[in-house]
Predict the 3D structure of the following.
Amino acid sequence: MIRRLSAFLIPLTFLMGTLLLRGVPERISASLWILSSALITAGLLAPRSQVFGRTIFQGPPQPRVALTFDDGPHPEDTPAILGVLAAAGAQATFFFVGKKAREHPELVREVARSGHEVEAHSDTHPWWFSLAGKGRLRREVRRSVATLTQLSGRRPRFFRPPMGHKGLSLEETLREEGLEMVTWSARPFDTVSRSPQAIQTRLLDRARPGGILLLHEGIRRQNGHPSRAVQALPGLLRGLRERGLEPVSLGDLLGRKE
């Protein structure tokens, strides 16, 4: 169904553009062209969209949530996160960027040794990911997977596209690589928030049983202090448990723990 819909929308967009040039009433053809273009854009950019491939953004409705971290490893934030998780006895999933993993291989190994999951988040985290051609997109996926497999000793099972933005050929590439696409159900916008308390409050307000929570490493660091997301983490873990939600890894949440 998903592939049939995406295969329909793209030709429809070009058809509407052709009709605009062939004398079809402008208001009708323009409206249809705008609608189909908007649907394609939403399908590519909306994290929960299923238009261009099956996307996991929520787990079973159990009293657990998956805690996930994007954009690492980071030389200061990753160890700080590991320390907080260890103190709380909590597990998490780290979506690492291949290039950063090659720069900090010891951190990838430490995350894996600590029992957390290492998953793929592209090789260079390009802003143009959703616009990439099939070849470049495939290289982003394959190189990140190869790097993380070598460093962690385990092949990633999940892939989170940069910013949650999909590419037209991403589903095909992930299927070839045996990966599942994952986004999130709740995020605190920690890339723009100035307050650890606001980050904590936003996530706790949005956390639901079976949710997949998103945080980032290395964002808004000042004067050598951990990022505000890291600063919010201890209170977030306490708040989740007070609400009866146990923070776990993505594999645990989905019942696919190795």
